């Protein structure tokens, strides 16, 4: 029984490493773990992930916005992402949207589907590291939707416990919206 479990775990580990290597070779994952200083550079510098996420975010945005009025401000854009886009991607709305009305938004999802079944026999830190890999694509989709709507900014996924995920969105506000912020 123990040898069967060891073999199964070895097979699962080999499969996970093979998939991660394929994602590295395709340019979907960073070659090294981002640190605080390098994560800011990685989020603003264009790379191979930008073309993938812009394609993946441009099509749903066009399909979901086909019969809508143009958005007036960033709060309406973020509500659109939390309600319509999230439902189209994950069959549920974002659990919580917070803002400081100055371009900082926090989208919280307590049961984030892409990381719902992520686990590791090496413990919690390794599970969270793996879950962050799965959260980068939805973060890229949100960033791509914002850029196709004319907003620039950064989207950083944060995972403290699986399956909870928080996307921190920092949008550079246009001057027309900055004057209304108090």
Characterization of the model:
The chain has 182 residues and is an alpha+beta fold. It is 53% helix and 13% strand. It has 6 helices and 4 strands, in the order H-H-H-H-E-E-H-E-E-H. The protein has helices at residues 2-26, 36-44, 48-64, 74-90, 124-148, 175-178; strands spanning 96-99, 104-109, 153-158, 165-171. A 4-stranded antiparallel sheet has the order 1-2-4-3. A hairpin with a 4-residue loop joins strand 1 and strand 2 (104-109). The chain is elongated. The model is unreliable at 34-46 (pLDDT under 50).
The largest sheet is: 4 strands, antiparallel
Overall geometry comes to: elongated
Query: Which class of secondary structure composition applies to the elements?
Result: alpha+beta
Helix and strand run: HHHHEEHEEH
Gyration radius over CA: 18 Å
The number of helical elements comes to: 6
Strand order of the largest sheet: 1-2-4-3
Estimate the helix proportion, in percent: 40-55%
What's the total count of β strands?
A: 4
Mean pLDDT over the residues = 77
Write a short abstract of this structure.
This protein is of the alpha+beta class. The protein has helices at residues 2-26, 36-44, 48-64, 74-90, 124-148, 175-178; strands at 96-99, 104-109, 153-158, 165-171.
């Amino acid at each position: 029984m123990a040898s069967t479990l060891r073999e199964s775990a070895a097979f699962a580990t080999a499969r996970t490493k093979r998939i991660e290597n394929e994602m590295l070779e395709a340019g979907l994952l960073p070659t090294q773990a981002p640190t605080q200083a390098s994560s800011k550079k990685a989020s603003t510098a264009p790379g191979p992930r930008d073309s993938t996420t812009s394609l993946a975010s441009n099509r749903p945005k066009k399909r979901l916005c086909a019969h809508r009025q143009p958005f007036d401000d960033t709060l309406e854009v973020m509500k659109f992402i939390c309600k319509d886009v999230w439902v189209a991607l994950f069959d549920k709305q974002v659990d919580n949207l917070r803002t400081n009305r100055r371009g900082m938004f926090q989208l919280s999802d307590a049961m984030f589907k892409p990381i719902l079944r992520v686990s590791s026999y090496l413990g919690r830190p390794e599970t969270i590291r793996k879950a962050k890999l799965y959260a980068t694509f939805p973060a890229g989709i949100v960033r791509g939707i914002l850029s196709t709507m004319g907003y620039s900014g950064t989207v950083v996924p944060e995972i403290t416990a699986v399956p909870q995920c928080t996307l921190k969105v920092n949008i550079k506000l246009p001057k027309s919206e900055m004057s209304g912020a108090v």
